[in-house]
């Protein structure tokens, strides 16, 4: 059996305690002293653990980038996070789509492969993309499915939500409507939540002039991003997301 070696500090502590007990035995204690000496110490209240804050990754095109917003803080991803009380990472590339390369040459598929696998988002919103309206839309379902599966493979614990294209001009271009229809059907086939700004009428003849800046290549203004954030937050709050963050009733 290994030999136990006690430190000098521990031995000194024992001697000190024995000495104190000897002194106690030779000198009687008053009632107050006895009570104070043997009173059970008060246990400090534990510091409450803060509730976890969900992380939402928003991935998309120039709308997610916030092209016409004052800055990223005024773009809809971060404003949505403020409404819901979530942390947000927004990754957008101007001009990018499932089929169309962006200003940096990135398709959605190639950009997903470049994401940090250690990010650990709880919710992923894949936005877009009207940038594909000039492409052969027969290839869209296959490309979109590959992107969504790549997200699910990289972040298997995250809830994936697909946010379809919102119109930048009215009347809505025919191919933009086709993109929305194709993504909506594919999301249903894949069992994913799909939010359609077109079907929900987010932008109409009555409000598009208030929210879309025609001088900025028909992108949302600060007011437009604030409005989009309100609509997106309302839809996200209705979905069955964040199961790890929902209290289970006993």
UniProtKB/TrEMBL annotation:
Q: Which Gene3D superfamilies match?
A: SGNH hydrolase
Return one GO MF term.
hydrolase activity
Signal sequence interval, chain numbering: 1-25
Question: Per its UniProt record, what InterPro entries does this chain match?
Answer: SGNH_hydro, SGNH_hydro_sf
Q: Which CDD domains match?
A: SGNH_hydrolase (cd00229)
Matches recorded under PROSITE patterns: PROKAR_LIPOPROTEIN (PS51257)
Give the keywords, sorted: Hydrolase, Signal
Report the SUPFAM superfamilies cross-referenced here.
SGNH hydrolase
Record domain SGNH hydrolase-type esterase: where = 58-226
The name on file for this protein is: SGNH/GDSL hydrolase family protein
Organism per entry: Microbacterium sorbitolivorans
Upper lineage is:
Bacteria, Bacillati, Actinomycetota, Actinomycetes, Micrococcales
């Amino acid at each position: 059996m290994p030999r136990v070696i006690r430190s000098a500090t521990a031995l000194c502590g024992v001697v000190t305690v024995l000495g104190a007990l000897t002194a106690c035995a030779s000198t009687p204690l008053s009632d107050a002293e006895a009570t104070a000496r043997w009173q059970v110490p008060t246990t400090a209240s534990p510091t409450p653990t803060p509730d976890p804050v969900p992380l939402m990754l928003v991935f998309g095109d120039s709308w997610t980038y916030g092209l016409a917003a004052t800055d990223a803080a005024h773009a809809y991803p971060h404003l949505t996070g403020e409404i819901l009380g979530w942390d947000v990472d927004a990754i957008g590339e101007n001009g990018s789509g499932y089929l169309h390369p962006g200003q940096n040459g990135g398709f959605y598929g190639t950009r997903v492969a470049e994401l940090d696998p250690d990010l650990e988002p709880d919710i992923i919103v894949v936005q877009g993309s009207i940038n594909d309206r000039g492409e052969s839309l027969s290839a869209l379902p296959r490309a979109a499915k590959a992107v969504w599966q790549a997200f699910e493979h990289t972040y298997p614990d995250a809830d994936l939500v697909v946010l379809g294209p919102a119109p930048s001009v009215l009347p809505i271009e025919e191919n933009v409507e086709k993109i929305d229809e194709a993504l909506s059907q594919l999301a249903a086939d894949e069992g994913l939540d799909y939010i359609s700004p077109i079907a929900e009428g987010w932008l109409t003849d009555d409000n598009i002039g208030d929210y879309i800046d025609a001088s900025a290549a028909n992108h949302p203004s600060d007011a437009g991003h604030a409005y989009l954030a309100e609509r997106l937050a309302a839809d996200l709050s209705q979905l069955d997301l964040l199961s790890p963050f929902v209290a289970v009733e006993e």
